[in-house]
Every structure is written in structure tokens, then in C-alpha cells.
Amino acid sequence: MERKQMPSLFSLAVFAALATSITLAGCAAGPNADIQRARASLMVAQQDPQVVTYAPVQLRAAQQTLNRAERIWEDKGDRAEASHLSYIAEQQAGIAVAKAQESVAEAEAKGLAEEREQVRLTARTREAELANERAREATRQAQEATGRAQQLEQELAALHARDTDRGLVMTLQEGVLFEFNRADLKPGAMRNLSPLVTFLREHPDRTLLIEGHTDSIGSESYNLDLSRSRAAAVQSFLAFNGISSDRIVARGYGKSYPVTSNDTEAGRQQNRRVEIVISHPGQHITER
């Protein structure tokens, strides 16, 4: 903030020197010398614009006292009274100068205080603006994150995900991911697993358990190997797409956990599945 520079006061030293020179010059002239000294002191004060601005009352009082001294001397020739009044006028002129100096100092101090306050207010205003900007940015990011999460939840819902105590469970039937009795992912499986990859990238705190399940046809060892291979195939796909293997546990359970009876072909199709359990935030998945 730019502050207007006030004009400097006449030096008191100059004021005193001028008064002293007039005194010495008029010592032999009698009481008129006192009046001349007072008049010179008052003239110095009256020529200083700061004194005129800040001490008009004191200047007026000095002028009035000097006028009285001049009338006493001219009308009555009263030397003592004229000298006394001249002395008072001279002191009043000096008081006017001192008053102006004090007012200038106060004005400068006030100006500096106002400048400091303005700087402080400007800083606080800027801090508030930055805080508001951060809050708006945080709100925007939260809204974007919420939108992304909702979108991903919808995509997961399209894959028949359901919320359970264990976590968010996606059930993918054999025909979606694998051919019958095969452990190689079908080309279409990659498209079906892509939303899961995106979800896991957006939520790096989530872990998951991949469970392979089969029907009861065939030996127990064959079904166990097949279920493990299928779970491992899904794990490899996720790892290939940037999901850390530290976040993934793959297990094969064979025919141990059917969801329905294996007595019918429809039941056996439902049992041939891969279940992907995604952890809730801050939770760990419990294996079977």
C-alpha cells in the first residue's frame, strides 16, 4: 500500500537560530526587540504548512498574544507588559511547532498501523481464498470419485455382484469365462473382467479372493485341479493388467461348495463357477 509522504517540518534548530539572531540584533533597541523576536518566531511557524495544518489553534493564540503586545507597546509604552506578552507569544509559536511535530508523528504511526493492518487483512483474505479453493477442489474431487464409484458399482452389479458379510461377491458362470472342462479364459471373458480391473485400480486398498468351483462329475482330484487352474487363470489375467499379486488370493475348492444340487444339468451348470470376493474398505477377506 502506497502512503502519501508528508512534507518535513522546519528545523527547530533553524527556528532557534533565527530567533537568537534577532535577539542579538535588537538588544540595544529596548522592548521592541522582544516583540521582533516573537514576531520572527511566529513567522517561522506560520510559513510551515504542517504547522498551519496541524496547529491552527496554537498559531491563532500566538498571533493574538503578539497583537496585544504590540498594542500595549504602541498605546501605553508599557515595556514590562509588552515584553511579558512577547515572551508568551514566542512560547505559543514554539508550542504550535511542537504540536505539529507530534501530529505528524501520530499520523505517520497511524499510517504505518493502517498499512500493517491492510497487509494482514490482505494476507487473511488470500488465506481464506486459498482455503475456499482447496475446499472447492476437494468437493469436486469427491464428487468425481463418487461418480466413478457409482459407475463402477453399477458395472459390477451388471456382473451379478452382491454385497455379503465377506465382501462384494461376483459370481461368473463357467460359460462366461471358460469352455466346458477347460481352464483357458475365453476371449469374451476379458471383456467381462475389464470393469473389475478398473475398479481395483480405482480402489488400491481393496483385496480379493478368487474361488474356483466345479460340479461333482469326475474324480475329486480332477475337479480340485480344474478349479485351482481356473482361479489361477483369473489371477493371472488381473496381474497382467496391473493388479498386484499381493492383493489377490486364488483358491480352488473343486466340488466342495455347491450352490445347488448336482442331480440336474441346470444345477451342475450353476455349480461350475468362479466367485470373486472383493473386500470391503478396511476389511480382510475370510477364506472358507
Query: What is the approximate shape?
Result: rod-shaped
At CATH level 3, the topology of the largest domain is 60s Ribosomal Protein L30, Chain: A
Calculate the terminal CA-CA distance, rounded to whole Å: 72 Å
Number of contiguous helices: 9
In CATH terms, the superfamily of the largest domain is OmpA-like domain
Mean pLDDT: 84
Report the top-level CATH class of the largest domain.
Answer: Alpha Beta
Report the structural category. Answer: alpha+beta
Please write the string of helix (H) and strand (E) elements: HHHHHEEHHEHEHE
Taking pLDDT < 50 over at least 5 consecutive residues as the criterion, the unreliable ranges are 1-31
Named CATH architecture of the largest domain: 2-Layer Sandwich
Radius of gyration, CA atoms, in whole angstroms: 50 Å
Q: Would you count the extended β strands for me?
A: 5
Tell me the β content. Answer: 5-15%
- Give the proportion of residues in helices: 55-70%
Q: What composes the largest sheet?
A: 5 strands, mixed
Main sheet strand line-up? 1-2-5-3-4
